[in-house]
Amino acid sequence: SASNAALLARREAAVARGVASAAPVFAERAENAELWDVEGKRFIDFAGGIAVLNTGHRHPAVIAAAKAQEDRYTHTSFQVVPYEPYVALAEKLNALAPGDFAKKSLLVTTGAEAVENAVKIARAATGRPGVIAFTAGYHGRTLLTLGLTGKVSPYKRDIGPFPTDLYRLPFPSQRDGISVADSIRALEMLFLTDAQPDRVAAIILEPVLGEGGYHPAPPELWQALRTICDREGILLIADEIQAGFGRTGTWFAVEHSGVAPDLITVAKSMAGGYPIAGVIGRAEVMDAMAPGGLGGTYGGNPVACAAALAAIEAIESEGLLARSTAIGENMRARFADMGARVAPYRMWDIRGLGAMLAVEFVTDFDTATPDAALTKSVVAHALKRGLILLPCGMHGNALRIMVPLTASDAILDEGMGIFEAALADAMA
Ligand code: PMP
């Protein structure tokens, strides 16, 4: 059978350079929080395919639901012949989403597509073009979603111009000395300088910055944005693509703020490993576009719908929301202890919500200079020792925890043990 080295050589010759892989190993099979490469080496997976696997690799109920659906039909296109699983998933999403008002949903295939459609819907509903996003926010790789994404390298480098009428606000940041009041002042200033408020359709925000470093948006920011959006007739969009479906201990991370957004984008862990995404929103907003204005050949694929219904059911029946909170508390304590013993003054921050947790590394505590080199070294040593980790953050100096919420205590413990050993290796 193939070796990692042989496959890497073929990959380099055949696959565009722009698509990078964090781990130089090739997958052979995976189960819950474990993965084996083509050479038989076992890994614990703390990356979960970038926050897609809150219910783990190949959750038995998800696989069974997908297989059962495959035995009936795999594709009709909902726009040609509709099918029940799409409707059932929309009903489920409408019921789960926060907000005491009637909701409707749209299903698409990827997160970027969900964000694109949320913006289209917001523009149609308001008759306004503008969209306001935040620094360090990540919303996708299409031209509109890249325009909303607040990080140049590697995503936006060399491929502008982006669509017009996009604006950016500073996300509150302890590192950069930006308070919630500063962010809101910047918004009021933006209304005076560049963005005529009655020409703004929407403000989009991640409840916890994902690629941007697992920084939770303070509840007061959501509350202030809600007030201003209501005042100006602007729609508030929560991008829950990375934070949703139990990662933070609630179905949607925005629930921690008590604010109900007008539109919510979802993807990733909604379907436990199958490509599906969606927009959930106020019924009258979602209905702004005329029939035929929304869709896509594959949107809401039936196999992915069946998988999503099973993944959501597993989150409910296995108590994974409470499990997320417990994993988060346990890991927070463990990281605090590990940082003090193994990397004194180098683990600057342990942050997040529930099991959406990250640790940030610095060269020293006084200047808190980001240490991307140490972070990279921890990732490399962890991989050697059998743990898959993924960095995040504007400075590439944070490591995020996206481990399946279905992982056993023994696996979590083993993974954290490897993390600690890798950190010790990197400090040596
Ligand atoms: N929004 C957020 C918050 C994300 O984390 C991501 C993916 N990392 C996206 C949008 C884009 O999703 P996709 O990669 O499925 O297009």
Please give the structural blueprint.
Blueprint: H1 4-14, E1 27-31, E2 34-37, E3 42-45, H2 48-51, H3 60-70, H4 84-96, E4 103-108, H5 111-126, E5 130-134, H6 143-148, H7 152-156, E6 166-169, H8 180-193, E7 200-205, H9 219-232, E8 235-239, E9 263-266, E10 277-282, H10 283-286, H11 302-317, H12 320-342, E11 347-353, E12 356-361, H13 372-385, E13 387-388, E14 390-392, E15 398-401, H14 409-427
Helix pairs in contact: 3-11, 4-11, 8-9, 12-14, 13-14
Bound molecules: 4'-deoxy-4'-aminopyridoxal-5'-phosphate (PMP).
Topology-level CATH name of the largest domain: Aspartate Aminotransferase, domain 2
Low-confidence parts, pLDDT < 50 over ≥5 residues? Answer: none
Q: What structural category do the secondary elements indicate?
A: alpha/beta
What count of structural domains? 2
Rounded to the nearest angstrom, the distance between the terminal CA atoms is 36 Å
What would you report as the Rg, rounded to the nearest angstrom?
A: 21 Å
> How much helical structure, as a percent, in the residues?
25-40%
**What portion of residues belong to β-strands?**
15-25%
According to CATH, the homologous superfamily of the largest domain is Type I PLP-dependent aspartate aminotransferase-like (Major domain)
Strand order of the largest sheet: 4-10-9-8-7-5-6
The number of helices is: 14
CATH class of the largest domain: Alpha Beta
Number of strands: 15
User: Please, what is the average pLDDT?
Assistant: 98
Order of helices and strands: HEEEHHHEHEHHEHEHEEEHHHEEHEEEH
CATH architecture of the largest domain: 3-Layer(aba) Sandwich
